[in-house]
Amino acid sequence: MAQQDIFTITQSNDAINIKCFGSWSGKNINQFLNFAQSKAVQKDLIIDISQIEFLDTNGAMALLFAQRKAYEKGFSATIIGEDENSSKLLQLCKKHDCTPLPKKSRVKNLKPLTLLGKGVIHSLKLFFAFLSFVGGVCVTFAKTLLNPKNIRFKATLYHLQQNGLYAVPIIAITSFLIGVVIAYQGAVQLKQFGANIFIVEMIGISATRELAPLIAAIVIAGRSASAFTAQIGVMKLTDEIDAMRTMGFRVWEFLVLPRVIALVIAMPLLVVIADGIAIFGGMIIAYSELGITYVEFLDRFRETVAMKHIFIGLFKAPIFGLTIALVGCYRGFQISSNTESVGRYTTVSVVNAIFWVIAFNALFSVVLTEIGL
Amino acid sequence: MIVQAQNIVTAFGDHIVHDGVSFEINKGEIFGILGGSGSGKTTLMRQMILLHRPNQGVLKVLGTDLTNIDSEDAQKLRLRWGVLFQFGALFSSLSILENVMIPLQEYTDLPNSFIEELALLKIQMVGLDKKVADLYPSELSGGMVKRAALARALALDPEILFLDEPTSGLDPASARAFDNLILKLRSLLGITVVMVTHDKDTIAHALDRFIILGDKKIVAQGDYQTLLQSNPSLMKKFME
Question: What's the ipTM?
Answer without folding.
Answer: 0.79
